[in-house]
Structures are given as structure tokens and as C-alpha cells.
């Protein structure tokens, strides 16, 4: 990947704001247990399986057409597959798969125009996996399906592009790594900032020591408030959807259009806005800029439903503090701040930097010498000294196309992708810890980076252990 050099300038900028958070430590509280007695001191077995590359004997020339399929044809899945089809990289989209017949029509019609071949419409992803012609898949389902679909794809010999957040639990992420390594499959996680040149120059700038020692990192995802949520009554399953397959690993429940269309607001299918809303993008980018640190020693989340007290399971505001020992990282997410905005197209695809003060998705990095503010999806970065003096910066464009091209290239070369499943898992663990802390009662969770286990709270450990319906199990054997 070509990297641009950062350069020094003297114009003024806006300094970031520090954030803070407080939580209750669970030690001594009713229903929790301190100490490590309930934790299995076992290093996760996937770590011995990790490979930097797969056998070069399986590489393919660029002239060899790559056959792909889309699994999950919602708005984002459609946008993603159309971007891939327009890449000019000698690919063919053979299938558009969705359990809901009302989705996928636009993707199919637009793909036919682009590639001169009308993709086949199927409901069951197993049809895709059983086709020996298919090289890779894009998994754009709700989150509760990410892990099982990825594992099944790997078992079927398919390479995978899986959307964020990659897993629905820490255990699932571990099994996804095992499947990728066991079957030697490319698994690219949909964290596009890992294919952004400016993220790499930000990392290099920090590594050079220009910021000094990093003491605090603040990651934001602050969005406008949602409409009030009025859960609909259960109803008969429409003929247009395979509801049992939509539920997949999740508990069996009657059809409900609210669950179907607003699945982000249910723990059974999502990690809430902290996962589906996009904060994983800038959280993962922050980790990349910092040189991909491992796991924190603890996580503590405070939050609740402050905007609409409408019975939704998930919070509309969360503030989580992660202790890394030598620095602190905070993640602030919310849906009740209409004065914050994401980057517009003039930023994502142009040379303009975000207006940092009210940027909804920024990353503030505080060093002992200077500070940096970074933006995802083409936002770039700027480093500041005293008096709001900008001393270095780099800009880019939305790296979606670059990320897709990296996936296709890795299908051919068998090199590990920019957004590897290992780093996808490492970033997702932070999301899971934030939600587990919130769901366990805003408790501080002590975490063992060695064993990837919560060591001080039984309720949080119980919540982290997901169960699966018969026929949709995920086990330690992949």
C-alpha cells in the first residue's frame, strides 16, 4: 500500500475535549464474586493456529475470474456488492442470498446492468456454500449470524468478507479465527479504515514519538436521536420470509416486524448502536493508529435510556472506560445528540478536514507533547501543539473501494487481508466488554488478556455465554 508523507504546516485548528466516566466496582456487591476461582485459566487455543500467510501454491493469476456471492441484501449489503462489482477486478457476482424475498431486487437488477449476468436469487446460504464455483462471500446479515455464517463458509472452502461487529460474543470471535486458520480461508472484516493510507501515516507519526507518550485516547460515536420505539404485536409469518432461518442461532420466538426490521434494538441479534451504529469503525481505527495494542485490564461502562424511555433493551447513551495500564481509552456512544454530525461527502471524498468540535465520529489522542484528532472514512488526521497550532496532518478518501480490492487481491494471493479476523476479534472484544459491563449493572469488569476472561463478576460471565438453537450451534470444534 502506498503511503503519503505527513507534512508540517502552521494554520490553526480546534483542540479536542477530554472525556471521563465512572462505574461501580462489582467486588462485594450482591450477585457477584471477586477472585479468579470461577475462571478457567486456559489460554485460548486459536492462538497456536494463527498463520501470517497461507500456502503460496494456491495463488491465482489476476486473469482468473473470482466468483462471489452476497449473503444479506439490505441497504448496506447492496451498496457494498455494487461497489465490488464496479471495481473492474475481473469478478462476477453469481448469487444474491437473503431469507427475505422483499430484499435483493435492486442489487440483482443493478448487478445485471454492470456485469451482463443476472445473479441467482436464493434464500438459503447453504446453496451458495454448496456451489464449487463460488470463491468468496460477503456476509452482510444481522450480527447474530456473522460467526456461524463465517464458520460455515470457511468449512465450505469459501473466503469471507464479514461485516462489523464481526461476532456476537468473545467466544464466537475465537471460533471464527480457528475456522479461518484451520481451513486456510481469507477472512476480511468490514473495518474499512484498515485500508486507509492516512491511518497508517497517523500510526507512523505516533511511532516517531512526535506526540510523546500516549496517556489517553477518546473515541466518539455521537448521533442524532432515533424516533420513539413502539414494539409491534406478534403476527403471522409473512410468506416472503423464512423466519426460522432469519432467527438462526437466536432463540425461537414468534414473528414480530419490530424484531425483523429493528433488530439493532434487541440483544438477541445485536450489540446495540455501540456495535451496529459504527463505533467499532473508529474504535478499530484507534487501535490501528496506536499500533494494535492487545486487550485492556478492565472495562467499565455507564449509560442508560435517556432520550426515549420506551422499553428498548439497549441504551441510547454509553460511556466506557478501558484501562490499558499505561494509558486509558474511552468509548462514548449515543443517539441523543443532534448537534453532532458525521463527515459528509465533501470530507469523505474531498480534501476538506472535518469540523472537529462537533464531529460525531472523531478520535482524540493525547500525548505528553502534542495531541492528534483523527476521523474515520476519509476524515484524515491533524496533530496540534499549543494555541491550536496544526503541526502535521494527512488526508484521504473513504477507503471502502480499497478495502474491497484488498479482499479480492487476497483471494488471489492468499496473503492475510488488511482487516484480518484476528484484529477484527481483538477490536470486537472491547465492544463485548462494554456491553457486558452495562448489562451486568454498570460494573467494572476485570479482564485477563492472557485467558480472554472476565475474572471478577459471575453475572457478566453468564451473560457472555451464549446458547444456540439446535441446528445452529457454534462449538469449540470448527
Task: Please describe what this structure looks like.
The protein is of the alpha/beta class and 478 residues long. The protein has a domain at 1-52 and 197-244 and 257-473: Dihydrodipicolinate Reductase, domain 2 (2-Layer Sandwich), CATH 3.30.360. 27% of the residues lie in helices and 18% in strands. It has 14 helices and 17 strands. Strands 1, 8, 9, 10, 11, 12, 13, 14, 15, 16 and 17 form an 11-stranded mixed beta sheet that branches. The chain has a 6-stranded parallel beta sheet with strand order 4-3-2-5-6-7, sandwiched between helices. α5 (170-182) runs antiparallel to α13 (421-439) and α10 crosses α13. Residues 1-22 and 26-37 have low confidence and may be disordered.
H/I helix tally:
14
* Radius of gyration (Å): 22 Å
The largest pleated sheet is described as:
11 strands, mixed
From the N-terminal CA to the C-terminal CA, the straight-line distance is: 33 Å
Overall 3D geometry? globular
**CATH T-level topology of the domain at 1-52 and 197-244 and 257-473:** Dihydrodipicolinate Reductase, domain 2
Please name the fourth-level CATH homologous superfamily of the domain at 1-52 and 197-244 and 257-473: Dihydrodipicolinate Reductase, domain 2
Structural class: alpha/beta
Low-confidence stretches: 1-22, 26-37
Explain briefly what this protein structure is.
With 478 residues, this protein is an alpha/beta fold. Helices cover 27% and strands 18% of the residues.
List keywords for this structure.
478 residues; alpha/beta; Dihydrodipicolinate Reductase, domain 2; eleven-stranded mixed beta sheet; globular; disordered N terminus
Amino acid at each position: 500500500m502506498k503511503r503519503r508523507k505527513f507534512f508540517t504546516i502552521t494554520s490553526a485548528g480546534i483542540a479536542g475535549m477530554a472525556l471521563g466516566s465512572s462505574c461501580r466496582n462489582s467486588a462485594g456487591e450482591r450477585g457477584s464474586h471477586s477472585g479468579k476461582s470461577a475462571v478457567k485459566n486456559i489460554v485460548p487455543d486459536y492462538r497456536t493456529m494463527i498463520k501470517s500467510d497461507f500456502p503460496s501454491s494456491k495463488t491465482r493469476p489476476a486473469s482468473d475470474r473470482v466468483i462471489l456471492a452476497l449473503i444479506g441484501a439490505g441497504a448496506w449489503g447492496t451498496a457494498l456488492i455494487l461497489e465490488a462489482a464496479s471495481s473492474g477486478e475481473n469478478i462476477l457476482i453469481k448469487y444474491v442470498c437473503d431469507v427475505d424475498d422483499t430484499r435483493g431486487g435492486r442489487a440483482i437488477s443493478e448487478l445485471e446492468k454492470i456485469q451482463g449476468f443476472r445473479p441467482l436469487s436464493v434464500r438459503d446460504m447453504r446453496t451458495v456454500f454448496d456451489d464449487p464455483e463460488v470463491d468468496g462471500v460477503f456476509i452482510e446479515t444481522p450480527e447474530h449470524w456473522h460467526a456461524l455464517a463465517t464458520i460455515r463458509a470457511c468449512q465450505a472452502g469459501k473466503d469471507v468478507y464479514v461485516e462489523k461487529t464481526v461476532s456476537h460474543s468473545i467466544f464466537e470471535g475465537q471460533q471464527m479465527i480457528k475456522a479461518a486458520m484451520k481451513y486456510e480461508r481469507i477472512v476480511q472484516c468490514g473495518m474499512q479504515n484498515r485500508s486507509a493510507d492516512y491511518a497508517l501515516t497517523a500510526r507512523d507519526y505516533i511511532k516517531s514519538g512526535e506526540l510523546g507518550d500516549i496517556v489517553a485516547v477518546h473515541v466518539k460515536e455521537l448521533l442524532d436521536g432515533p424516533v420513539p420505539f413502539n414494539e409491534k404485536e406478534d403476527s403471522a409469518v409473512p410468506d416472503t420470509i423464512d423466519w426460522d432461518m432469519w432467527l438462526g442461532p437466536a432463540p425461537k420466538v414468534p414473528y414480530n416486524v419490530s424484531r425483523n426490521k429493528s433488530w439493532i434494538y434487541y440483544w438477541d441479534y445485536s450489540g446495540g448502536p455501540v456495535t451496529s451504529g459504527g463505533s467499532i469503525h473508529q474504535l478499530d481505527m484507534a487501535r490501528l493508529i496506536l499500533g494494535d495494542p492487545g486487550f485492556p485490564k478492565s472495562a467499565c461502562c455507564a449509560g442508560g435510556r435517556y432520550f426515549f424511555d420506551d422499553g428498548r433493551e439497549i441504551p441510547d447513551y454509553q460511556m466506557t472506560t478501558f484501562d490499558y495500564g499505561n494509558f486509558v481509552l474511552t468509548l462514548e456512544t449515543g443517539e441523543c445528540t443532534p448537534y453532532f454530525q458525521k463527515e459528509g461527502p465533501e470530507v469523505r471524498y474531498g480534501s476538506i478536514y472535518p469540523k472537529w468540535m462537533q464531529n460525531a465520529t472523531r478520535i482524540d489522542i493525547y500525548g505528553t507533547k502534542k495531541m492528534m484528532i483523527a476521523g474515520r472514512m476519509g476524515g484524515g488526521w491533524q496533530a496540534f501543539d499549543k494555541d491550536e497550532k496544526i503541526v502535521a496532518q494527512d488526508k484521504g478518501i473513504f477507503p471502502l473501494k480499497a478495502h474491497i480490492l484488498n479482499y479480492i487481491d487476497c483471494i488471489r494471493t492468499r496473503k492475510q487481508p488488511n482487516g484480518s479476523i484476528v484484529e477484527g476479534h481483538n477490536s470486537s472484544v472491547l465492544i463485548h466488554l462494554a456491553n457486558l459491563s452495562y448489562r451486568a449493572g454498570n460494573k467494572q469488569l476485570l479482564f485477563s488478556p492472557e485467558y480472554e476472561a472476565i475474572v471478577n463478576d459471575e453475572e457478566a460471565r453468564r451473560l457472555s455465554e451464549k446458547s444456540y438453537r439446535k441446528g445452529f450451534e457454534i462449538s469449540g470444534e470448527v
